[in-house]
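Researcher: Let's do a round of design. I'm pasting the structure tokens now; please hold your answer until I've finished.
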């Protein structure tokens, strides 16, 4: 499955200058560090790149206790004679002092430039000094189109996004259907690969369960029993948090009587380890202040959220929604909005945006605020083609912006300083 990040890796390889090394510059060329949540395809991307552009690949799984010293038992003549044709892949590299020292020594003692490291853990300051970091996220919708044999749609979407002209209705409906499928499968390569191989979604939920179990195992492995329990409790509450009308994180959905102080560290670790995406409230003059105590938490992948919501609804679990709100239509609307918000959050993250949300005292709400073209741009998400809302007008009384974005099932359009884009075009932002 082709990933867009492979172009960045190719550029990294091609920009290497073997004559760049000087006496003062011991490490002339930074190795790459791919980081992100388990299951996003870091190792697959590394191997896909390595097999395509190198003759020799040395793979060391450092999660299993292997070390760089293992290289010295191999045929070093290949490395010495043709370093430009050889790459080392260090999987799940730990950021302890011993490993960092070992890597520095290895880089300083050899004229060998191509090291591709992988990590699912938070990167230390020392790690950032040694490596050029490259985040890997779940596959975006355009990557899903490529993987599923629908790549020709991508140029059509990008062209109409730029021109704001409507896509022919038959193509628009096809893309909405494909996007609905993507919401269910998500962007984790394992789930997408299962769908492609089976030509069915029958095993997708099982793929999601396996991945979540791997998250739980890592949480237990690298945290104390008490902290691991808190992290799991927060993670397990996220589908319930997002099914509410007000999607701001509420501690009482974990269990009654909990406080911020009890779970602050657990939430921080979940975000640092890429198990959750945090979106803080934005306020203040110019919308430049963040209120970290007032936030939403999203799952790293909308497919995982789809499965968790479906399981909860099928089990008729108490969804912590008041009884008068538990009608079927209400539940479906809340589910759809939760999935769409999560999808946009992970897409914005993949696009490199920092983002937050905004609300007024009168309960006007903007789902996301991003910085684009040196301005703050509000983004509203709608669960149908009905995009009427007063929230944009209310925000404009507090802050002037060049235009706003409304994401819905409507076709492309631009009117009254509102850019309308369909769900499937979020990757163009």
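Researcher: That's everything. Go ahead.
Model: Designed sequence:
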């Amino acid at each position: 499955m082709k990933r867009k990040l492979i172009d960045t890796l190719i550029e990294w390889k091609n920009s290497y200058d073997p004559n760049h090394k000087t006496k003062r510059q011991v490490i002339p060329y930074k190795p790459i560090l791919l980081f992100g949540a388990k299951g996003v395809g870091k190792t697959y991307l590394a191997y896909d790149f390595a097999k395509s552009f190198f003759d020799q690949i040395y793979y060391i799984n450092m999660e299993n206790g292997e070390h760089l010293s293992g290289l010295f038992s191999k045929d070093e003549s290949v490395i010495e004679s043709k370093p430009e044709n050889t790459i080392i892949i260090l999987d799940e590299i730990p950021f302890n002092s011993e490993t960092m020292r070992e890597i520095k020594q290895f880089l300083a003692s050899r004229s060998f430039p191509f090291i591709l490291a992988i990590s699912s853990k938070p990167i230390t300051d020392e790690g950032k000094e040694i490596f050029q970091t490259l985040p890997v996220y779940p596959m975006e919708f355009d990557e899903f189109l490529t993987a599923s044999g629908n790549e020709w749609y991508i140029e059509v979407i990008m062209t109409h996004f730029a021109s704001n002209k409507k896509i022919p209705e038959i193509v628009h409906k096809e893309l909405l259907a494909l996007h609905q499928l993507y919401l269910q499968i998500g962007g984790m390569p394992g789930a997408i690969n299962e769908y492609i191989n089976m030509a069915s979604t029958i095993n997708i939920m099982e793929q999601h369960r396996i991945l979540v179990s791997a998250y739980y195992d890592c949480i237990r492995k690298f945290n104390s029993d008490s902290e691991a329990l808190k992290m799991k409790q927060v993670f397990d509450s996220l589908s319930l948090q997002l099914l509410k009308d007000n999607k701001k994180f509420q501690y009482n959905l974990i269990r009654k009587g909990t406080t911020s102080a009890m779970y602050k560290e657990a939430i921080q670790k979940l975000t640092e380890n890429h198990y959750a995406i945090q979106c803080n409230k934005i306020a203040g003059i110019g919308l430049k202040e963040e209120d970290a105590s007032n936030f939403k938490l999203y799952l790293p992948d909308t497919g995982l959220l789809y499965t968790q919501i479906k399981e909860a609804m099928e089990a008729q679990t108490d969804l912590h929604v008041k009884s008068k709100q538990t009608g079927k239509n209400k539940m479906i609307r809340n589910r759809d909005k939760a999935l769409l918000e999560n999808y946009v959050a992970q897409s914005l993250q993949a696009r490199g945006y920092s983002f937050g949300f905004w609300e007024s005292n009168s309960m006007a709400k903007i789902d996301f605020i991003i910085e684009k073209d040196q301005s703050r741009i509000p983004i509203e998400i709608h669960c149908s083609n009905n995009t009427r809302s007063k929230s944009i007008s209310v925000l404009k009384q507090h802050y002037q912006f060049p235009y706003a974005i409304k994401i819905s099932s409507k076709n492309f359009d631009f009117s009254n300083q509102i850019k309308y884009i369909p769900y499937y075009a979020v990757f163009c932002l």
